[in-house]
TrEMBL record:
This is Helicase domain protein. It holds the Pfam family DEAD. Keywords: ATP-binding, Helicase, Hydrolase, Nucleotide-binding, Plasmid. GO terms for molecular function: ATP binding; helicase activity; hydrolase activity; nucleic acid binding. InterPro entries: DEAD/DEAH_box_helicase_dom (IPR011545), Hel308_SKI2-like (IPR050474), Helicase_ATP-bd (IPR014001), Helicase_C-like (IPR001650), P-loop_NTPase (IPR027417). The lineage of its organism: Bacteria, Pseudomonadati, Pseudomonadota, Alphaproteobacteria, Hyphomicrobiales. Coiled coil: none annotated. Gene3D superfamilies: P-loop containing nucleotide triphosphate hydrolases. It comes from Rhizobium leguminosarum bv. trifolii (strain WSM1325). Residues 287-469 form the Helicase C-terminal domain. Residues 109-266 form the Helicase ATP-binding domain.
Length: 713
């Protein structure tokens, strides 16, 4: 049977008389080394059409399933000793819902149990996290670290580990949490949080999820890529075993010089993909028409990938304006009711959710992002419009993926990124065949080799990475570059390292500005705790003049005085809604209310809660060097930076956002006179509080119940 005929049968269906021919053709593919991977794909497609095979042929299909290593898909009612032996060989440790490894998982598990370092490069559906859980279950390691690319992934991982292991392991996710050397612990952290901890010296096994981000060209933020390299270096230099996981790549350079490891690039997959290309132009409305047409036809869970929040908004508006396509649904009304209370009613997220469409991107508050994924998982919403924030590691139940844009921001996606997005279609044991609809054109296949920056140093390697390495870890050329900088720099090595996210020339400019302006050499910069108005204005002027001017222009902030006023408005507001309403009231003429809401959220989360604290601490370190040289006690801005990170809320209450409780809700149920400086103190409140008499919506009560169910008793 020709391959195209086989594909046709497994797509459109076949009768009993063709079933033997189908299995025969698949058997031929499976038994040839050259076509074995293709044979596995055809076995998966056969499983999707299992109901079409006569009962007498099902044992033959089972045999093919076993021969391609898809052990979890086998029937557990075995009839021979050999079949039972094969099942038992692939049985997992007790890790919840997963009972059996497939053959690739078993291979990796055995390598890791043998203390080998492993780099697994495989498709999204291969079940990499089950191997992590199995290693935890083995008991080989008392302290383990899992490095995830986003804060959104922290809680998903935390919940999975608690569900599987209960109280056997303490789980540390937040900077305010303290670990104990005596207690078995799993740290679930981003690279930034891992670098800021001093209690990881006992970690003997660590995982980096999405390891391709070690390549400076593969991560959107070079600063984050540098931090990931430093995190890998920090943990591996302590002698910890590593397991790096990510999508399929063709090679990896930069690990081998000091560390032995097994690189496993595999095309093993547990699902098959159908990819349909339409080749539609970017402009002119044809993509929008096709999007509507597809959403009219598709009945199963569907991700719609967009290049940016703005594109996600356009896609949502396209679906909402299509007459009769999306009726209102009762399944999301508790969330809609809450959104209408906490945000302006014109926000596109509220309108979309009312009609069963979720929106997920970086400007959406974290607790809402989590709700969108859960609503998608449970079927409360059928379409989830997303950007790369969801594609990078978050698992969903999508059978279909519609790629609305072939760009991320304004850059065309490469073949690697395309495959990563497409890999979100299909789900092991639920959807054997994922379907990908590309409205434009997919990129041409190419090779992808990851260059790990810490091990492939060149003249373009960022100084921020080199400065944090020991001499033994630097190449001769890198050592010369570092020596030149440290010899000529007016700033201490400690400051240069602490300020690695700020370009060195900008740091020198700030240093010079402080030296030149004698009015700054004292009280205006030498403050601790909470600054008074002149002190805050002094640092805001430096931030606007030397660090964040381009970013702040996007928020219509052009001076230190304007930045100070915005910060005070956040600090003194009674609710986040006040800040959002202020952005709405003062929006540009060409901006909609919905645009203003998302600008406000972006300002709060990405600037006040992220960029501003980093810029503030950069100035703190620099003024410390200057003032110490003239014999003045330097300031320390750490306390105020931490307050800004939490949007001037109690730090512990704000941290609940990462666990699914919005800040607006946390403020509502927390006693006013109490302080909650740590995440654990806020969690204790959630565990023990009596909600009777507290003015909460059904949505908020559901979120609290969901969090309580995920906590250790």
């Amino acid at each position: 049977m020709l391959l195209e005929d086989l594909r046709s049968f497994l797509t459109t269906g076949f009768g009993p008389e063709q079933a033997v021919l189908v299995l025969g053709a698949v058997n031929t593919l499976v038994n040839s080394q050259r076509t074995h991977d293709l044979g596995r794909e055809m076995v998966i497609r056969c499983l999707a059409k299992k109901d079409l095979f006569p009962p007498g042929l099902l044992p033959l299909l089972e045999s093919l399933v076993g021969s391609v290593g898809l052990i979890p898909y086998l029937s557990k009612d075995v009839s021979t000793f050999e079949e039972q032996l094969m099942l038992e060989a692939h049985r997992t440790p007790a890790i919840g819902k997963v009972d059996f490894f497939h053959t690739l998982q078993l291979q990796i598990y055995r390598e890791l149990r043998s203390k080998r370092n492993v780099v697994l490069s495989a498709t999204t559906s291969v079940g990499k996290s089950a191997i992590v859980d199995a290693i935890i279950a083995s008991g080989d390691h008392k302290h383990l670290t899992i490095i995830v690319p986003t804060i959104a992934l922290i809680d998903e991982t935390r919940r999975r580990i608690i569900e599987t292991f209960g109280s056997r392991y303490a789980i540390v996710t937040h900077p305010t949490q303290v670990s104990s050397r005596d207690k078995a612990t799993v740290f679930v952290l981003t690279q930034e949080r891992a670098l800021n901890r001093d209690d990881l010296q006992d970690v003997s096994f660590f995982v980096i999820d999405e390891f391709y981000k070690l390549d400076l060209q593969m991560e959107k933020s070079i600063e984050r890529a540098v931090d990931l390299n430093l995190c890998f270096h920090k943990l591996s230099s302590n002698g910890a075993q590593f397991y790096l996981i990510g999508p399929h790549v063709d090679g990896i350079n930069g690990l081998a010089s000091k560390r032995e490891f097994l690189f496993l690039p595999s095309h093993f997959s547990t699902i098959a993909l159908d990819i349909v290309q339409y080749g539609l132009p970017r402009d002119g409305g044809e993509r929008e028409e096709k999007l509507i047409e597809l959403c009219e036809e598709l009945t199963s869970p569907t991700l719609i990938f967009c290049q940016s929040p703005g594109s996600a908004k356009r896609a949502a508006e396209t679906l909402l304006e299509a007459e009769g396509l999306l009726p209102e649904t009762d399944l999301t009304w508790p969330a809609v009711e809450w959104l209408e209370k906490e945000y302006p009613e014109e926000w596109i997220v509220t309108h979309a959710l009312r009609r069963g469409v979720g929106i997920h991107h970086g400007s959406i508050p974290r607790a809402l992002q989590q709700y969108m994924v859960k609503a998608f998982e449970t079927g409360a919403i059928k379409f989830l419009i997303c950007t790369s924030t969801l594609i990078e590691g978050v698992n969903t139940v999508a059978e279909n993926v519609i790629i609305f844009d072939k760009r991320i921001k304004n850059t065309g996606i490469d073949y690697f990124t395309f495959r990563n997005i497409a890999g979100r279609a299909g789900r092991m044991r639920r959807y054997f065949v994922g379907r990908v609809y590309v409205l434009e054109e997919q990129p041409e296949p190419d090779t992808c080799v990851i260059e790990v920056a810490v091990g492939t140093q060149s003249e373009t390697t960022p100084m921020s990475l080199l400065l944090d390495l020991e001499d033994d870890d630097l190449t001769p050329a890198s050592k010369t570059r570092v020596e030149s900088v440290t010899r000529e720099s007016p700033l201490s090595l400690e400051t240069l390292r602490a300020n690695r996210r700020v370009h060195i020339e900008k740091q020198y400019d700030i240093y010079d500005a402080i030296w030149r302006d004698t009015s700054l050499l004292g009280r205006p910069l030498a403050w601790r705790g909470v600054p008074d108005s002149p002190q805050l204005l002094a640092v805001c002027n430096l931030i606007v003049d030397y660090l964040d001017s381009e970013i702040l222009k996007g928020y219509q902030i052009f001076s230190g005085k304007q930045l100070q006023a915005k910060l005070y408005s956040v600090e003194n507001s009674k609710s986040l809604r006040e800040v959002i309403d202020d952005f709405v009231e003062h929006r540009r003429r060409d901006a909609s209310v919905s645009d203003a809401v998302e600008l406000a959220l972006r300002f709060l989360r990405k600037y006040v809660g992220y960029t501003f604290p980093q810029s503030l601490m950069a100035i703190s370190h620099i003024q410390g060097d200057v003032l110490r040289k003239i014999g003045v006690e330097p300031g320390n801005y750490e306390f105020y930076a931490a307050k800004a990170e939490s949007l001037f809320m109690e730090r512990g209450l704000f941290a609940l956002d990462e666990y699914g409780i919005p800040p607006e809700t946390a403020i509502r149920f927390a006693p006013v006179a109490r302080e909650y400086p740590t995440l654990d103190s806020a969690i204790e409140l959630v565990k023990r509080m009596d909600l009777r008499g507290v003015d909460l919506t059904k949505f908020e009560r559901d979120l609290i119940d969901d969090l309580r169910a995920s906590l250790l008793s």
